[in-house]
Write a structure and sequence with these properties.
The protein is mostly helical. The protein contains eleven helices and no strands.
């Protein structure tokens, strides 16, 4: 067996350090959240218990944890659905070049390079100066779309650039209308990518802080609530909240991955049944 080169060990050590840097804080918070009733915000731990997780479900002296969670969840769903619909429509539109398509493309992508806090400030000012209410479901929703839509559109552009148009041509030859072609041919084929766009939209919205800071109005979303708690809460309950939100994020990712797996199995089954029918 050929001996390993020194570069292999260097890259392995670098990757190991990267994993520690990436997941170390999360594991630290998770460990500290299991402290006993007398526990503090730092090591050493003072006992081991579920006390602070139970405390999460009690009335807190400051903040509105579960209200902010509901707002973030609803906002995430709103952003997710809008991102998926607009991204698919945009991807279909950009399949055919139209006048000004390059300008529109760069205008969309520009929002990714503008500092998030400036986007939040600008959207908040537009709403307030227009006499509109600054609220998480209006201005907050709009500011978050400037973050999620470019990602969704970029994914759809990549998907449609590799899409085999012969499937659509075959459907039209068989008498399918343009809407039937999209519904029964295009959408089932790109379904896994749509789930990816939905996951991007929801998670980016659920975790977004800067673009919501000046556009959420009087009611905080969960990231804003957690930030506010860091200045007031001095118990491990904030670590318990961080652990719970991390677990929730992994559950959401798991649901989306299971959905992709289910669609893949379903497509494979339909393909197998179609093949048997032709024999």
């Amino acid at each position: 067996m050929e001996p390993r080169r020194p570069a292999f060990y260097i890259l392995s050590a670098f990757f190991g350090l990267f994993l520690v840097f990436l997941y170390g804080p999360t594991f630290t918070i998770a460990i500290l959240s299991f402290q006993g009733p007398q526990g503090g915000l730092t090591f050493p731990m003072r006992g081991v218990s579920m006390h602070w997780f139970y405390d999460l479900f009690e009335q807190q002296a400051v903040g509105d944890i579960w209200g902010s969670f509901r707002r973030s969840f609803v906002l995430g769903l709103m952003v997710m659905v809008t991102t998926v619909v607009v991204s698919v429509l945009g991807g279909l539109a950009f399949r055919k070049r139209f006048a000004g398509s390059s300008i529109v493309f760069y205008l969309i992508i520009t929002s990714l390079v503008i500092p998030s806090i400036l986007i939040s400030l600008g959207v908040g000012l537009i709403f307030s100066q227009s006499g509109l209410r600054v609220h998480w479901a209006t201005s907050g929703f709009g500011s978050q779309l400037t973050w999620t839509l470019p990602f969704g559109l970029l994914i759809m552009f990549a998907v449609f650039n590799r899409f085999d148009k012969s499937y659509e041509e075959a459907a039209r030859d068989l008498g399918a209308s343009p809407w039937q072609t999209i519904r029964y041919v295009v959408l089932p084929i790109i379904a896994p990518s749509l789930i990816g766009v939905a996951l991007f939209g929801f998670t980016l919205s659920y975790d977004e802080f800067a673009r919501t800071l000046l556009t959420a109005g009087s009611y905080n979303t969960l990231p804003l609530e957690i930030f506010g708690m860091t200045t007031n809460v001095t118990t491990p309950v904030i670590f318990a909240l961080g652990t719970m939100t991390t677990v929730f994020s992994f559950l959401v990712i798991g649901v989306f991955l299971l959905t992709v797996w289910f669609l893949g199995k379903r497509r494979a089954k339909h393909g197998s049944d179609a093949g048997k029918g032709m024999m």
